[in-house]
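User: Structure please.
Assistant: Input sequence and predicted structure:
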Amino acid sequence: MPVEVRIDPGRIARTLRLRNGVVARRLADRTQRTARIAEREAPGSMGRYITWKVENGPQGLQGVIVCDHPATRFVLDGTRPHIIRPRRAKVLRFEIRGREVFAAYVRHPGTRANNFLARALRQGR
């Protein structure tokens, strides 16, 4: 499920009071800079799933940053402690300190929320 962060171009347009072409280029630069910050702030390989674009919206041009990694919602919102059970097999298999371990289920402690997109938006201003 993609998650989008939108940058308000109205504030930029009012500040610059320039032709639409210049505003669009500046909005694209700012959106790209914010997307690069989001790529750096994203955990693991999630930064590779971040894209950006400038598009026409209901209030004019707007910069859009999208992260379409399958676990984006879980990273942004965090998770509560939960039990992980195998879906297609009888047991789970994973490694701990180089040893192969099998388990019928695992108690996951949950994860803390990591809103890297909001941090990137604040740093990109």
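Residues 3-123 form one domain.
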